[in-house]
Amino acid sequence: MEHIIHRVWRRPFTHFPRTLILPKRNHSGRAEHTPCTPSARPKPALLMSRLYQSSNLCDVGQDGRLSAEMTCKSQRLMQQAGLIHPSNPGCYYYLPATVRSMEKLVRVIDQEMQGIGGQKLDMPSLCSADLWRLTGRWDLMGKELFRLTDRHGGDYCLGPTHEEAVTTLVTHQIFSYKQLPLLLYQITRKFRDEPKPKFGLLRGREFYMKDMYSFDVSEEAAHQTYESVCQAYKQLFARLGLPCVQVQADTGNIGGTLSHEFQLPADAGEDRLLLCGNCSFSANVETVSSDGTDCPQCKTGTLVESKGIEVGHTFYLSKKYSEIFKAEFRDAQNKIVVTEMGCYGLGVTRILAAAIEVMSTEEEIRWPGLIAPYQVCVIPPKKGSKVDEGTALGEELVHALGETLPHMKGEVVFDDRTQMTIGKRLKDASKLGYPYVIVVGQGALEETPKFEVICQQTGETVFLSKDGLLDLLGRVETV
Ligand SMILES: [Zn+2]
Q1: Could you tell me the pTM of the whole model?
Q2: According to the model, what pLDDT value does residue 9 have?
């Protein structure tokens, strides 16, 4: 069977059409470099007219059927821009630009998780009911679980979280205390049968989540690990420029004794938070028992209510799962001891949508610069205009960017729809929120060519020479 699949699938790849997006490859598999002469100037690699996105730029709001379902800004903007496309309730196609952004976000998360010793793995989405019955969650989770039965009558669920799976995995080995802490994480699709999926990627039934699980030798060590994960989360959100707050939270059906949520304050948020204006106290309303507005921590401040989008959650689990599955280690006296666990989630697709929700205007998408799908859009003049020859300069510029700034490789889109005015294309670029838009206009034809650079994050416009531009973009962080 495997052999047949191999034969069937292999053929199309050997005859795969070469497109402008794929560099031509020689027999050694390396990309060929075409010498750069005026007559054989390479075309910019990423042409707007070829990207599966721009043709979707339309006013979805005019479609009555769709606008009725548009429940928040990020959903509307992402659908209008062709970043996502709805399939069935709570499920979306993630279109190419979204996948680029998500892959960047995943790289940033990897950096932060591996920075505190996290090791990445990948666990099955099909989870056996037997494991979930052992912890009692097969019944406890109720209708939230997507359940299915295989041909042998075995019950399974599509994993919404993996405490059972990861704990049973590590049970296969008794650790030495010297091997702990152990931090395992994955970034995979999760499933939850939401009663009312809404808000686009903010509350879907199928979504990407980073879930990490820690195993420690003692409660004290587990608390240290817990704190290091919280610090890594704070650093992650700081790098993304998202003003998240860490709030006390309820442990829900995950269990455990200590829990925090990382909340991004936003009107579209479904969680109600209480923040103290005087000290660092912040909590989910669910966890605050007093009805008053006085801060329980500093006693002098007043609690102010705010709405938030939950983008991360941390739990100290103690031995809730490790005891059931016998996840154990040998201590210094060679005694077998049950490990202390923690689990830590980040809503990957939710962070993406939440960032768009809080950073964008009603009409224009803004991204955390680090994870924007593309960093730069170059807009050459309209075909047949007085400054038509600027197009060649624009192409040269894109080429120079690629040659001089390796970190900008694949980050520069050339808007070759030259039948359209600069103004119209500029409007599209503003809607999509490239951090930098470069207009090749009149100034580019002067003796010392100047390019108009619009920094969408700050709204500033500057005129820069090619060197000035290279200097500016050379300092942009990409991931
Ligand atoms: Zn306070």
Answers
A1: 0.88
A2: 41
